[in-house]
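Researcher: Please generate the 3D structure of the following complex. Treat every line as part of one assembly.
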Amino acid sequence: MRSESKKDMDKLEEARNRFISEIAKNIHLYNITPSAGRLYGTVFFSKEPMTLDEMSKEMGMSKTSMSTGIRSLLEANMVERVWERGIRKDLYKVEDDWYKSFSNVFINRWRNATELNMDAIQETKEMLHNLIEQTEDEDVKELAEHDLEKLVYAENYYNWLTDVIALFETGEIFDIVPKNTEKHE
Amino acid sequence: MRSESKKDMDKLEEARNRFISEIAKNIHLYNITPSAGRLYGTVFFSKEPMTLDEMSKEMGMSKTSMSTGIRSLLEANMVERVWERGIRKDLYKVEDDWYKSFSNVFINRWRNATELNMDAIQETKEMLHNLIEQTEDEDVKELAEHDLEKLVYAENYYNWLTDVIALFETGEIFDIVPKNTEKHE
DNA sequence: AAGTTTGTTCAGTAAAAACTGTACAAAGTT
DNA sequence: AACTTTGTACAGTTTTTACTGAACAAACTT
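Model: Done. Output below.
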């Protein structure tokens, strides 16, 4: 290999690294660690699907870390496992529909939180209703009623959020904001 | 105070705690620590705006933690400072427009990440263009061109995301998904 | 001006999370 | 059946993050 090519290959690495580092910095929005973010970037630029061993070598990190990193990326639907005839090792490539990746993450995370919060609201409301019914302490009663109002507000908010999430779930969002946006003029 | 009232007050605390604990569990979606989430819940149920000292006492944590916790909530627009005549201490209450809170968090976090990523894409593209122009290594050239294609795709995706974010920024989202949703039937 | 009250900075500590190497189980190869 | 290869569980270590108390600065009170 000529030293010239070597230098050019380094420049390519450098360019890729500029983008990978930025991904690593912002990936926490997907609840993914920076190093799993670098892993994502590495697989993103790879021409072929990668094995855990290749990732390990490329990243200079343990295979164990690759395994856990890839799993978190898989769970976020940002990476997928692919099969290739004659290859025993697991192969991974990035999910190539980024719109889908984003939607998946957005939906899963917010819907999950929303459901749990709504359950909590229902339970709390019930506890407060019971308390109001049985208490003889007027102050407590008043406080509980005040709390109930706040919870009803919260409930409405979560209903709204559920509807927003549904935009992404149904794909309706792509009617509102079309996918094939060309570069803004 | 009668022992009966004491027990009822405990029950109120218990009910509130059910909701507060759930918030604490899911607040990481806003990049906020669980304990700052509990703090939010505490202020949420308080009838009056609270001081740092009151929070400290209520939460059984240091005032320093209250200070940093409140700051993170302030930055997320989830809490606001209020003024009351004759009171020297800083008073805080929860931002009572949750739709606004959500939008703020959503907008700030995603727009910021999107801008940084788009900057990185521009820079990386430039680096790759330069490399393609000057390299004599055909393999490197091919790889760089391949990378460029991927970056163009990413660019389109971020344009789309920018438009989605704009729905929330402009408030257009409330035309699409109306706020005053009554409880789903 | 001296004395308080109040919030924050900072250094040290405690708790949590990320990473590694070893050991092992499952599946493939001989 | 013995041997390899491959991915993951687990225990220990390192790194990062959260929390605290002491010291301090700014603003208010006397």
